[in-house]
Structures are given as structure tokens and as C-alpha cells.
Automatic annotation (TrEMBL):
GO terms for molecular function: cysteine desulfurase activity; pyridoxal phosphate binding. It comes from Rhodovibrio salinarum. InterPro entries: Aminotrans_V_dom, Aminotrans_V_PyrdxlP_BS, Cys_dSase_SufS, Cysteine_dSase, PyrdxlP-dep_Trfase, PyrdxlP-dep_Trfase_major, PyrdxlP-dep_Trfase_small. Residues 27-395 form the Aminotransferase class V domain. Gene3D superfamilies: Aspartate Aminotransferase, domain 1, Type I PLP-dependent aspartate aminotransferase-like (Major domain). This is Cysteine desulfurase. Catalyzes the removal of elemental sulfur atoms from cysteine to produce alanine. Seems to participate in the biosynthesis of the nitrogenase metalloclusters by providing the inorganic sulfur required for the Fe-S core formation.
């Protein structure tokens, strides 16, 4: 235990075995999106080749098989995050839609004008903009807990802002821009002591560490399939049953109703009452396969492997003169955000691309966080289960070239 056979992992990913400009691909953009292992590709192909049909409505055989696979994926995901029941797992387009669902449904039904939604400086735009839209529609307020200079989010920075007016805490599990891991348990305990529910933007956690929604004690947990080795177009909102059950519908349409007349419609219970229209059937099945594949590895070993990569990358990049790492929180996920004194992040990204290294350059959909550090952009290397120390070397060597070019 606590080791991971990275070569065997890599063998599952067809896309990794290629050259970019004649150099081996080093894919270090996992926080934006991850690559797909063969079992995910196969599961989706098999669905389309052998049993695809619309779900829940057909009496015919293919529809039944399709429905079984779609609902089976829900159960797999529920077990993966230790949800008390699979009916608490709602399929969405991704984390963005999951957060919008809570803002529209829970927010409009249960937040009152003047109440506050408490977020933090390190949120992704997906956990800022829906609350701003709600603010402008409902007259709620946004409060923002600060991060420290080194990227740490202290629990007290959040908990001291929870007061009588707080209606909801909406907070990331792991910062996609800096890697900061948020002390969720402490924050949730303090929020619940004041009767305030907690929504977590989980996006960056499930592919990298064990997520147990019951142990975290949170009320809503949102994440995307494509960052956890699954397909795009599918994500999850997990919510506590008692909350989901009292929430009004999000979108209206087919699949989510019991009966419709021109006068009145009646709605299904969760999860189907929140899944209007034909869902992303093949993608849900693909996400189920990704979870099965990920569950085949010891997630503690995955976390240990990525932590080693983080330590090594931090050491190698710190040795480059004029390179500044932004965010050195402890604990931190395997994300290294940095700037270089002479070169713009986009130039750095372009130059390392020529060396086969895929990194992100930009604001990482976290413009307020960039502004907090007086920046408009950083370069971000983000690691996943299949990355290696050689790839860190490939990045560091390419950055040395940047330094020489611009130095
Ligand atoms: N939150 C965080 C922390 C993220 O990293 C992302 C994706 N970059 C999102 C939300 C949005 O996810 P999606 O675009 O898949 O809906």
C-alpha cells in the first residue's frame, strides 16, 4: 500500500503516449481537465454500440438496459462519496450547473433579502457569479472571507464572519488556482452550530483524495466528471436528503414531472425532480466507469504520489531564479501556480508547450483571487494520478529556457 504503479496507470491512457513538437507530452493541466482512461472510453463506446436508448421512459429492452446503467452509475458515485442514499446524487452538466441549481432552487426558496451568502477570496467564478446573480435578483448580500498572503485559508477567517444574517456558506474544497486545501470540517461545524448550511464546490478534490460527504459533514457537494478522469457534460450535486426534499424544482420539463395539465404540474422527488429533460446518459455511464476505475486504486496512495510530485516540483521550481510560487498553503493539493519576473504567463505557457509541456496560463477563472495577489495571471502546473517526476524535470528544464530567453 501507499505506492502507485504509475507506469501501469499511464498504460490506461491512450492520449498520453504521443509527442508534441517531437517531445513527449507532459500533461500538467489536470486542474482544468483530466485525460480519460481506456475503461471510460470503452464504457461509453459500449453504451453507444450495444444498448443506448433514452432512459426511464421506454418499455423496450434497450431503454431498460440503458436505465439500469444510468442508475447504476448513480449508485457507484453515491458509494464513492459515501452518500447515505443514491437518491441524493443529482446528475448535472458539471459543478457549475450544480452550484446554479442550489442558487436557483434553494436560494430563491430559502434565502431572504438581507441574508448573506458567505464565500471566500479563493473561489472559482462558478462559486461567485451565481451568488451575485441571486444577490441582484433577491437582495441578498455577499460576504467574502479573506485568504492569507501565503494562500492559506484559516478556518477562523471564515467562521468569524458567520453570524445571525448568514444564510449559506458556499466554499471550495480545494482552490483550483493555488491548491489550498480548505479546513472544511471546522468551518462546517461552526456553521452548523449557528444553523447555517454549507455548500462545497468540490471540483478539485475527488480525483486526488478520498471524499466522504458524511465525514465532512457538509450539506451540498458539487463536482464535475471531466476533472476526475470522466467525460465532459456530466457532474454531480450531492445534497442532504432533508434539504433536497424541500427544494423546489430547478428546471421544468420532461422526466421531472409526475403529471402535467395546463393548469398544474406535479413533480417527482429527488433526484429525478431535478433532472429535467433527457440527461447526459452516455456521459453519466462514463462517469460511473471513471469512478470504478479510480476506486480500483488506493486513493491514499494516489494522494501520496501527487504530494511527492508537488514537493519535487516546488523544490525544482524554487531553484529557478526570478520564479515566484504563488500559494504555499499547508496542506496543499498538487497545484503549483507561479509567475516569472521577466516573462508574461502566456509567453511562458507558449514556450513550455514547444517542449511538450501542457500548463495553464491565465486567471484560472479566479480573477478576484488574482487581484488579491496583485496579479492578472499565473502559470499553473497541476498534477494528476499519471504524472511523473520526469515530467516535472521536463517542465523545470523548459522554464530554464524561458529564463535564459527573457533573462
Ligand atoms: N470550481 C472549481 C474549483 C473548478 O476548478 C472548476 C473548473 N475549473 C469549476 C468550479 C467549474 O467546473 P465546470 O466548468 O466543470 O462546471
Amino acid at each position: 500500500r501507499n505506492t502507485l504503479d504509475v507506469e501501469r496507470v499511464r498504460a490506461d491512457f491512450p492520449i498520453l503516449h504521443q509527442e508534441i513538437y517531437g517531445k513527449p507530452l507532459a500533461y500538467l493541466d489536470n486542474a482544468a481537465s483530466s485525460q480519460k482512461p481506456r475503461p471510460v472510453i470503452n464504457a461509453m463506446t459500449e453504451a453507444m454500440e450495444s444498448y443506448y436508448a433514452n432512459v426511464h421512459r421506454g418499455v423496450h429492452r434497450l431503454s431498460q438496459v440503458s436505465t439500469d446503467h444510468y442508475e447504476g452509475a448513480r449508485e457507484t458515485i453515491a458509494r464513492f462519496i459515501n452518500a447515505p442514499k443514491s437518491d441524493e446524487v443529482i446528475f448535472t452538466r458539471g459543478a457549475t450547473e450544480a452550484i446554479n441549481l442550489v442558487a436557483s432552487s434553494y436560494g430563491r426558496a430559502f434565502l431572504k433579502p438581507g441574508q448573506e451568502v458567505l464565500i471566500t477570496e479563493l473561489e472559482h467564478h462558478a462559486n461567485i457569479v451565481p451568488w451575485q446573480m441571486l444577490r441582484d435578483q433577491l437582495g441578498i448580500k455577499l460576504r467574502v472571507a479573506p485568504v492569507d498572503d501565503d494562500g492559506t485559508l484559516r478556518a477562523e477567517a471564515v467562521t468569524e464572519l458567520i453570524g445571525e444574517n448568514t444564510g449559506l456558506v458556499a466554499i471550495a474544497h480545494i482552490s483550483n488556482a493555488l491548491g489550498t486545501i480548505v479546513p472544511l470540517q471546522e468551518i462546517t461545524a461552526a456553521a452548523h452550530a449557528k444553523g447555517v448550511p454549507v455548500l462545497v464546490d468540490g471540483c478539485q478534490a475527488p480525483p486526488h483524495q478520498k471524499v466522504d460527504v458524511q465525514a465532512l459533514g457538509v450539506d451540498f457537494y458539487a463536482f464535475s466528471g471531466h476533472k476526475m478522469y470522466g467525460p465532459t457534460g456530466i457532474g454531480v450535486l450531492w445534497g442532504r436528503w432533508d434539504l433536497l426534499k424541500k427544494m423546489p424544482p430547478y428546471q421544468g420539463g420532461g422526466e421531472m414531472i409526475y403529471s402535467v395539465t395546463f393548469e398544474k404540474s406535479t413533480f417527482k422527488e429527488p433526484p429525478h425532480g431535478f433532472e429535467a429533460g433527457t440527461p447526459a446518459i452516455v456521459e453519466a455511464i462514463g462517469l460511473g466507469a471513471a469512478v470504478d476505475w479510480l476506486s480500483g486504486h488506493d486513493l491514499d496512495a494516489v494522494a501520496a504520489h501527487e504530494h511527492k510530485l508537488l514537493a519535487y516540483a516546488t523544490e525544482r521550481l524554487s531553484a529557478i531564479e526570478g520564479l515566484n510560487i504563488i500559494g504555499r498553503a499547508e496542506p496543499k493539493a498538487a497545484i503549483v501556480s507561479f509567475t516569472m519576473d521577466q516573462a508574461h504567463p502566456h509567453d511562458i505557457g507558449t514556450i513550455v508547450d514547444r517542449a511538450g509541456v501542457a500548463v495553464r496560463a491565465g486567471h484560472h477563472c479566479a480573477q478576484p483571487l488574482m487581484e488579491r495577489y496583485g496579479l492578472s495571471a499565473t502559470v499553473r502546473a497541476s498534477f494528476g494520478i499519471y504524472n511523473t517526476e520526469q515530467e516535472v524535470d521536463q517542465l523545470a528544464d523548459a522554464l530554464q529556457v524561458v529564463k535564459e530567453l527573457f533573462g
